[in-house]
Design brief:
mainly beta; three-stranded antiparallel sheet; two-stranded antiparallel sheet; elongated
Length: 79
């Protein structure tokens, strides 16, 4: 199964969730903030289609044989 892909709303960086920066929220240490590794902006991300090579936003979710998928409408498959 493909790794979740994200896009920064501020600078357009694209990457997988393991590349995102994470730190305790300074206002609530029990919560976490997530930052862009390129522009360092926090919490402004969009989930991208997990189909390899696709650049569209993930707008659908569906169970597949390989696990749950997050895809754009064009890559959605009915079960």
């Amino acid at each position: 199964m493909a790794e979740l892909q994200w896009r920064c709303e501020d600078c357009g960086w694209r990457g997988n969730q393991t590349q995102l920066l994470r730190a305790p929220n300074p206002f609530d240490p029990e919560c976490e903030i997530v930052g862009c590794p390129q522009c360092k902006s926090v919490n402004g991300f969009e989930n991208m289609c997990d189909e390899p090579g696709c650049k569209e936003l993930a707008t659908c979710g569906w169970p597949s044989n390989a696990g749950y998928r997050r895809t754009c409408h064009a890559h959605y498959q009915r079960g």
